[in-house]
Amino acid sequence: MTTQKHLRDEEIVDTVEPPRKKSKKLESNSERTNSKKDKKHKEKREKAAVDTEDRDATEKVSKKDKKKSKKSKKEKKAKADDEEAVDAPEAAVKEVPGSEEQGSEAPKEKKKSRKDKKSKKFKVTDAEQQVDGEMVDAPAEILETEPTTETVTPESNVADGAVKEKKSKKDKKKSKKEKNSKTSSPDTQAANGTQSNNGLVTASSSYTETNAVRALSEPDVSTFLSKHNITATNPKPSYATYRPIISFDHLPSTTLLNKSPFAEYKEPTPIQAASWPYGLAGRDIIGVAETGSGKTMAFALPCVEAVLAASGGKDRKTTRAVIVSPTRELAMQTNEQVSKLCSLVGLNCVCIYGGASKDDQRYALRKGAAVVVATPGRLKDFISDGGITLDKAAFVVLDEADRMLDKGFEEDIKEILSSCPAKEKRQTLMFTATWPFSVQSLASTFMIDPVKITIGRGNGADASDSAEVKLQANDRIKQEVEVIDQRAKEQRVLQLLKKYQSGAKKDDRILVFCLYKKEAVRVENFLSQRGVRVGSIHGDLKQEQRTRSLEAFKQGKTPVLVATDVAARGLDIPEVKLVLNVTFPLTIEDYVHRIGRTGRAGKDGHAITMFTEHDKAHSGELINILKASKQAVPDELLKFGTTVKRKGHDAYGAFFKAVDTTKRATKITFD
Ligand SMILES: Nc1ncnc2c1ncn2[C@@H]1O[C@H](COP(=O)(O)OP(=O)(O)OP(=O)(O)O)[C@@H](O)[C@H]1O
């Protein structure tokens, strides 16, 4: 890309810049090289020839000189680019496929050709066509100004040019191939849906349904899907649908699976059953399932299988997979689980996160990390200082995906993904328990035709076409809400702790959530002064303190942990009996994640939430969650109102129309 661009720049210099000054200098140089005899003769000849021969000669020399200067210019620029790649993370962004083509086209030419195309269209114009012309051009502008964004644009996008056209041709070929080789299947394999050809699907090259799966009867498959409210939505009818893997025996035989990595579990959880086939088949996945439902293993198995396949069993040092987590503790926990699988097949999994020694992590990376689990900030650091290279990381997971795609992490994620192979060349998986509409269009720009797998009520066949994924809490969690005066909170916490840690329950683990760091400090001090064995975890603590508090809580040394939302997502702490929300979180999604620290892996849980006048903006959303989980809704809460304020789109506000951006636009051509 750079070479082409530089050459073009130099071509422009060649034709525009008059070589006069250089020629004079070069003339005198050439004169010096001549013998004195020749000099006179040459001078005569020069005078006679005036502007002909010698001008040619000087031009030749000057061209040589220019070439030389071009070369050095090129070298300089290449060097600068190299330096950028190391120093500035944006350098990696330049390598985003697609931006290559943007860069290789001179902007003037581009504009001209767009103008031409526009004017052609406007010749056959009517109002609609004009509007369409604008629509066609608009995304191009975005692409030019924001090359970091891997924007999914309509096929008719003119300025996307060759790249997209090539892609769409490829897509067509691919889908034709798929049509021929795979059994055509319905768009949605809904809970109560049916599969074509008695559900027998010819699997893709990397995943073949085992005979055990094929042998399942259609009613058995349907019953399993509807019992667990499983919906798998394929973006195109041409893609294969797969039957769920309802037993570990139904998994294919591989080096990893032959080592029985799931011996401790009885059967796959619904999200594992439904998503493993697609993950193993190399598909991009959006997986949405309740808290504590085994999503980590849902992505860990296809991850390790993909890395093994890509390494060919030989090169185990290259980083081939990256899993991004929003918090350090979650990254460490995920690392533990993935490492278990990796160690069975001789792969290294390395965890990199902030607040810990960079040198140790660098050393671990140097030794070879086939899989990397990371928090965004530290990962970006290593990318920019060359400590890690992700150009072969063709398997990418965004865990707690909605958090990773919200405003706080959006730019980091864009940067990280632009260092990985292009989305066409990588497999991208996103897993979460909550999938708000606000992040869905951004998610689609990082994926290719993901299959959307949702587990839960309200996401059945009827909802398959909609982009909405119903927000719901884990049904096994008993949710209680106490409307309370702000000033009475601390005493109430103390009362509740006494109640739920009385007698035989004295060591029961209770997680107390606060909204602010200072509030967490205050509540912790208040409780410890009253003899409660309590620790805390929040952003104002050093990483060692955070790790120590969490460990003490896990081991039951301090059965009460006061936390901010750093502990709201993903943490799998065994036997948390009660979650106590002292202050309501900022979003209803955070509420679902917080209470999800209890009632994990099929167990029952309990959550008590203190709700005050200050939280009334959340009453409608909370009432909906309670009702959907068949929980009691206190009258005092209903008094705050049931209205749910529509969440506005980040850029377009509350009136943004919810459309499925993963759907391709229809191509309209004008003669
Ligand atoms: N097939 C299984 N059978 C029983 N338990 C399982 C199974 N798979 C995973 N688990 C256990 O379930 C617990 C929760 O798993 P995990 O942490 O992956 O949940 P999650 O869906 O990612 O939760 P969250 O949404 O809170 O991040 C873990 O202790 C894990 O070991």
Automatic annotation (TrEMBL):
Residues 1-202 are annotated as: Disordered. Residues 276-453 form the Helicase ATP-binding domain. Residues 63-77, 109-122, 166-179 have a biased composition (Basic residues). One of its GO terms (cellular component) is cytosol. Residues 186-202 have a biased composition (Polar residues). Residues 1-10, 17-36, 45-62 have a biased composition (Basic and acidic residues). Residues 145-155 have a biased composition (Low complexity). Residues 492-641 form the Helicase C-terminal domain. This is RNA helicase. It catalyses: ATP + H2O = ADP + phosphate + H(+). Belongs to the DEAD box helicase family. Keywords: ATP-binding, Helicase, Hydrolase, Nucleotide-binding, RNA-binding. Its EC number is 3.6.4.13. It comes from the Eukaryota. It comes from Zalerion maritima. CDD domains: DEADc (cd00268), SF2_C_DEAD (cd18787). One of its GO terms (molecular function) is ATP binding. SMART domains: DEXDc, HELICc.
